[in-house]
Write a structure and sequence with these properties.
Elements lengths: L4 E6 L2 H5 L2 H12 L5 E6 L11 E5 L5 E4 L3 H13 L13 E3 L13 E6 L8 H6 L7 E4 L10 E6 L3 E6 L4 H9 L8 E2 L21 H6 L4 H7 L3 H11 L11 H9 L7 E6 L8 H8 L1 H15 L3 E7 L3 H17 L14 E7 L8 H8 L23 E5 H13 L1 H5 L2 E2 L2 E2 L1 E8 L5 E6 L4 H8 L9 E6 L5 E4 L9 H7 L7 E6 L4 H15 L5 H20 L2 H17 L3 H5 L2 H22 L1
Parallel strand pairs: 1-2, 6-7, 11-12, 11-14, 12-13, 17-21
Antiparallel strand pairs: 1-3, 3-4, 4-5, 6-8, 8-9, 9-10, 15-16, 17-18, 19-20, 19-21
Amino acid sequence: MNPAGEIRVAMDSGGIAAGAGAVFEEFKIRAANFPAIKIVQVGTPGMCYADAQAEFIIEGRPHLHFGRLTTRSARLLFEEFVVKGRLPSQNDAHDYLVLGSRIPGILSKKITSIVCCDTMQRGDEDLLSLIKSGVDASVEIIEVADFGFYNRGYALQFFPGGFMVADLGRDTIAHALASVLQGDEPDVGTIMRESAQLRIASRHCGMLDPEDIAAYEAAGGYNGLRRALAQAPDVVVNEVLASGLRGRGGAGYPTGKKWQMTAAQRSDEKYVICNGDEGDPGAFMDRSLLEGDPHTVLEGLIIAGYATGASVGYFYIRAEYPLATARVQKAIDAAHAKGYLGKNILGSNFSFEARVRLGAGAYVCGEETALIASIEGKRGSPHARPPYPSVKGLHDAPTTINNVETLASVPEILARGGAWYAGIGEGKSKGTKVFAVSGKIRRTQLVEVPLGVSVREVVDDLCGGLVPGKKIKAVQTGGPSGGLVPANLLETHLTYEDMSALGSIIGSGGMIVLDEDVNMVELMRFYLGFNTDESCGKCAPCRIGGFQLKRLFDKLLAGGTQTDLEQIERIAHAMQAASLCGLGKAAPAPLFATLKYFRPEYENLCREIKA
């Protein structure tokens, strides 16, 4: 029997750097004689720690995800798992990771395979024998390394269907097995009815070929645009207002209010801009969305243009993202050919064009007014506000600027309604947020969760916590202008309000986990150095203040005094109060966070000098 199905290879920048290109070509060579097997390139499914990775959706086989692939293991898996219907022997399995399906299914009464995982990662050697003792010999048992959630005891997934049970112990596994094999839901453990993540902005990443507009349309793509064009622009603005969507670039300003302000301006020309100038150390949210699902962001940009009365939209993408840039341009070309761009879109009176502009790697160009200056061909430096871009922006015309993730959420809001989106999240923090979690973490990942989950849930439950033997010290959020969540406050909810009360921010979504070995003073010297190097130098508080702070930190670490520490605080407050733009105003934020939660590390330096 010829196998049928598809293999999705994660062909994002991280995957390609880990060898996904060669793995993709190996699969294509192997599939040449199997016309029912489709090899598909997709964006990252999020599990960056497992690159290069591929997802196997083969008829009659468990839905499995494989990571850390090489051309050798790709060849082996195709011949054994796809063609022969079995996993390679355990002797060969050390070459790659076997991961379970991330999408729990429905209960199936005919069980042919069971995949199992110890989410506490204790390495229990008796796990397989324990499960095998409770099932018929015809049922295949497959041990996997990861289901995408942690600290949940033993977990089992049953195929076909993908029904999943977690929170099992040694004394409850047998009972859970017996119940499921009889076609019943077990009364022990926890039935995983949905993923721990809720993917809206990243819903297609890892699922669809980002260069195939037909695949995007088949998944409901451009239905949000159709619904928008069937309504008046002000109705679209009100839909976004009702959703409670806030800017995902860092500031958290209500998106609907920004659109409303631009729409209210009278002008012969208006613009919308997608801010893809992602520059925070440890951040890869925007890159992943642009590489993995450019059509979603483009659709959001077109809807924003219609709602605000704009006729031209720009993607401002940093030049260090060549794959994202290429895929966005391909999406624009394909959308033009299908009538989603150009004159009288989909037979309406609305005409709109989209263009790509590259940034030269200046961090300050993530600031709205500096970004506008860069698009105009000027030096990328900020100017005072007001007037705000919504009133006077690109070429002095009203301009709406939205972050990549913000625009990626818009099509689903238009397709499913603002009330649906507003029902997700907590308090005034509606919807979901994409986080790039890195640092001293077991599983570097891109995750999307409802706003309102705790920092601990993201770090421990979704990313596996720290490597064994290490203790968490803090989680740095919001990039070099963000703050810190110390270990004793990890239960803090990820909302704009709760993070602000803590003295931190959600920011654009970068989340760097720090262990007990991190020296907070040295970390702050790094961030201050970054912000100083990236300053445009236009205003004295940022230009001079940053330089002085960096000099004082060098002195403090080499032999400083309490007077130096006091001077650091004075300069930081002056920068925060008097700098022209957000870079200078926010540059001292991580410094204030470390002084608030880790001040003894600074004072110990001073005491050591005095001694």
